[in-house]
Amino acid sequence: xxxxxxxxxxxxxxxxxxxxxxxxxxxxxxxxxxxxxxxxxxxxxxxxxxxxxxxxxxxxxxxxxxxxxxxxxxxxxxxxxxxxxxxxxxxxxxxxxxxxxxxxxxxxxxxxxxxxxxxxxxxxxxxxxxxxxxxxxxxxxxxxxxxxxxxxxxxxxxxxxxxxxxxxxxxxxxxxxxxxxxxxxxxxxxxxxxxxxxxxxxxxxxxxxxxxxxxxxxxxxxxxxxxxxxxxxxxxxxxxxxxxxxxxxxxxxxxxxxxxxxxxxxxxxxxxxxxxxxxxxxxxxxxxxxxxxxxxxxxxxxxxxx
Length: 306
Hints:
- This protein has about 300 residues and is α+β, with helices and mostly antiparallel strands.
- It has 2 domains: about 10-175, Roll (Nuclear Transport Factor 2, Chain: A), CATH 3.10.450; about 190-305, Immunoglobulin-like, CATH 2.60.40.
- The protein has helices at about 10-15, 45-60, 65, 90-105, 130-135, 160-175, 240-245; strands at about 70-80, 85-90, 110-115, 120-130, 140-150, 150-160, 190-200, 200-205, 210, 215-220, 230-235, 260-265, 270-280, 285-290, 295-305.
- The strands form 3 sheets. Strands 2-1-6-5-4-3 form a 6-stranded mixed β-sheet.
- Strand 14 and strand 15 form a beta hairpin.
- The longest helix has 14 residues, at about 45-60.
- The relative contact order is 0.16.
């Protein structure tokens, strides 16, 4: 999948230590004393008990116990973290690397169940991690959306809160030296795009430059497990990026600084085309599936060539 260009390897590795990547960042100094976080092992709701059990096992440092709550083919989406704003992990092997790094970094989490609707559990999640402690931004607050089938987590979507994202961006700006912007090779602008929905996310493999004017987008929906899929396109106000956009996708409507100028829905197995007009860039594209209504990927940003 094409997403935003990553920063230098240094930033990628450092950010990888934050809650999700499979590599370990060595602590520059001993972390402060860890907070005590108590999470009940069971709840009154059978589906939310899987979420509480996951939190309990992670807090106990039990990797295999935590993994047991995930389905073998589970999808784990993490939205809002710089630089790309979107991280996607598919299957137990990839998720295991995330959890293993977390446990090695004295990860703790606290959950508050906000809602339970059929097989969907939504929580307010608060986390502590050595890296965020050292940056001075712990705890990090987020919204987690879990889909539970037969007692197993088949989908988890984690959205950092806008407040925690703002603190994180500020701390990173102070901690990291400014990086010169890399020159990106000029790409031939296109006016036709094909976005493929497969294996729980969306894929686009072509130029990230759009010719201003009418754009034809083909949606190739290969996945069959959701009732509907969708793609939306946005312009963002200056100073906003994919991290901000993906952190805000848990909200019911686009934020005031995002202009969603196209939205198209499609059915599983469908191959269809539609047209929309682009007159300015950059353009950010977000892919969705439902139910539940979740972002499942991002493409861009696209430049727009007159």
